[in-house]
Amino acid sequence: MTITLYDLPSKLAVKGWSPNPWKARLALNIKGLPYKTIWVELPDVERVCKDIGAKPTGTWRTGTPLYTLPIIHDDTNNAVISDSFEIARYLDDQYPDTIPMFPKGSHTLQAAFKEAHERVALVHLYPLMGVTMVRQLNAPSEHYYRTKKGPSSGATFEEVDLKGEARVEQWKKVREGHEIIASWFSKNEEGQFVMGKDVSFADTMLVAWLRVVGLIYGEESDEWKAVLSWQDGWWARYLKQFDQYLAVV
After folding, report:
1. Per-chain mean pLDDT for the chain
2. Which position among 3, 141, 183, 213 has the lowest Cβ density within 10 Å, counted as fewest Cβ atoms?
3. pTM over 0.85
4. Which positions ≥6 away from 48 have C-beta within 8 Å?
5. Which CATH number does the domain 3-94 belong to among 3.40.50.300, 3.40.30.10, 1.10.3720.10, 3.90.550.10?
6. Which pLDDT score is estimated for 213?
7. What tens digit of pLDDT does each residue of 44-74 get?
8. Whole-number Å distance between alpha carbons of 240 and 43
9. Number of CB atoms found within 10 A of residue 71's CB
């Protein structure tokens, strides 16, 4: 059995900078499945996807197919799966003796959690990621990201980057969003995962995004230290549970 994970590289020591591939990587690591990584710069993603038969995951504004990573290729049955959510579902089905990412009956609830996470926290985080993230990319991907995924206004990432009090207020919204999410955990009767004592794909959503914040800002940055201090260190304790699953291979 050989599983290949297609991911996006960067200047970072661990290379991986994109939250969605991190979700797939976490799922593979939690399940203990052996795999290898092929790194693909952003301008090459569409070509690579077409070469291996990966399906598009959306459309551009022009209506043309949009190809994204992560993708896995499992040579056990020559399966090629796009999208981190679908990858986790496939791994559950194909390798039922591993830790499930979708415990029985949880698919709908986890899909709803994904939308809630977006509305409560990520929508506030996005404006704080642009310029910090793009500067971590290798030259081909940085150029692609700036030209293809830059602000819709036509301004540069630097020009729309929040500064001063506006930036402070934006981080406050991110913190408040995570306070709401942390309050959901308090409803569990036991355990410290989204689904109580059982880890699930919903946890990879939270961990992937916060992992990327720590990577692109740096572990010694004021921003990351602030994240770890939220809710009296609750998020630091939550993330600590996943240290064993952060290996990049």
Report:
1. 96
2. 183
3. yes
4. 6, 40, 54
5. 3.40.30.10
6. 98
7. 999 999 999 999 999 988 899 999 999 999 9
8. 34
9. 29
The burial of 173, by beta-carbon neighbours within 10 Å (0-12 exposed, 13-18 middle, 19 or more buried), is given as middle
Map tokens 């690579």 to a residue.
48
Which residues 6+ apart lie within 8 Å of 76 measured at CB? 1, 2, 94
Q: For residue 1, is pLDDT > 80?
A: no
Domain 106-245 indexed as CATH 1.20.1050.10: yes
- The predicted structure's pLDDT at residue 241: 97
The phi, psi pair for 173, rounded to 5°, reads -65, -40
